[in-house]
Amino acid sequence: xxxxxxEPVTLDRxxxxxxxxxxxxxxxxxxxxxxxxxxxxxxxxxxxxxxxARAGKRIGAPVAVVTxxxxxxxxxxxxxxxxxASMSALRRARTRSIFSWPEGLAxxxxxxxxxxxxxxxxxxxxxxxxLAGAAALFVLPVIDITLKAPxxxxxxxxxxxxxxxxxxxxxxxxxxxGRIIEHRFSIxxxxxxxxxxxxxxxxxxxxxxxxxxxxxxVSVPAGTLVTTASGIRFGTTxxxxxxxxxxxxxVTGAATPIVGTPTPGVARPQAASAVATVxxxxxxVQGKVPARAIVRxxxxxxxxxxxxxxxxxxxxSGTKARTASADDIAxxxxxxxxxxxxxxxSELNLRVKQSESLIPHSxxxxxxxxxxxRQQDEECDRIKGTVYVLARAMSFANQDLNAAVExxxxxxxxxxxxxxxxxxxLSPPEVMEADSRTASLKVRVSGQSEPxxxxxxxxxxxxxxSTEEAKSRLSRxxxxxxxxxxAMWPExxxxxxxxxxxxxx
Length: 505
Hints:
Residues 1-5 and 115-122 have low confidence and may be disordered. Helix 1 (17-24) packs parallel to helix 2 (46-59) and helix 5 packs antiparallel against helix 6. Helix content is 25%, strand content 36%. It is of the alpha+beta class. The strands form seven sheets. Strands 6, 7, 8, 21, 22, 23, 24, 25 and 26 form a nine-stranded mixed β-sheet that branches. Strands 18-12-13-17-10-19 form a six-stranded antiparallel β-sheet, with no helix packed on it. The chain has four domains: 9-140, no CATH class; 157-193 and 324-444, no CATH class; 196-246 and 268-321, no CATH class; 453-504, no CATH class. The protein is built from ten helices and 28 strands.
């Protein structure tokens, strides 16, 4: 059965026919209801009810007129409108209560007995009076109890589990499904170097003497390397030829040689030598070596040559330079990792659907590789590095979370209360724990609840007693709702066996 309007239209003392029609243009949900106040100036005009009837036809729904004046209800019925003495009577008629028929019969009688009725209607009125009198003693009286059940905003915490292994929603465990989002990207950054070392600036220069003990001249090209015992290298600056050694005359003397004297008849060669200019291969002070420090000529072709610097090699100088230290490389690695952690969340958020939320606590960042443009101890002002990142995190559908929280809220209201239809408010979920597959979320939810009215108990207390006694009994109840009114209908009835309870907010 359709319900009547949530917001009835009221015609009061200051209304005109035009304002009445204007009010009917915006009826409440369902069937429109028009309440005519007792002082309404247009209620005696039959045109008013004709206009209301036309408005009902135009909007496709019958208009129900509620007024305490029997004569006005009769005028409304004559125009095809439904008319009722009170909103309670309207409710009983709409719900087809078993008591609506005698109530309507009595109301028709009261409307008929109005002084404006013609004398020909009195026999009918008398018959109605007899029938209504019988009904009035037993079934017509009703006590109408109106209660105010205050709506309270209540909040509590709801736990929801997100699991990537769950398909759909599990109401028993309050679990919703999640999905994994992953993305690969690279990050480049640099750090300033803090290491330093001395590096060469100028090359040391000097002269060496090359001595040839062989019988063949030796050509020494420019760039021939000569080294010290410790490995410091020098190169000749120009080609030089070292002549062949010349043999000496044979030695003659006593038949028996004396130890330490030349062997008779053996010729000793006379070594040849040449001077060559050399320069250190590496700049710096390490090229400054003392006399007789250079001792070797590199190369198999120079096996008959010996070398020595008669004077110290001089002229080399150095300076301080910034280099990549081990701490710099470690600091670059940490900088890149921190930047990867920070940027991973942004990268993953860009890939979450608009209807989803990411769980930051489930994010995992893996460094799959790193490249640096400088090595340790290499001379440079800064080191640039690049890392290759794999970021993963879990997400969930917002709609699934909202539905799970609301379902839990509505199935477990506070004791003695029931949820009120309407929206609930959810705080952003708080992550209690999370790993790569599951997460536990805590959501603070608040919604409106109203106390449950014990209708059966109220009916037992008010049935079969006077209005005053019913008020006295009901006022002693300790309940979370407030007693607004207790009214007997008709007012002259001493008691009633019918009780109707109407909670209002």
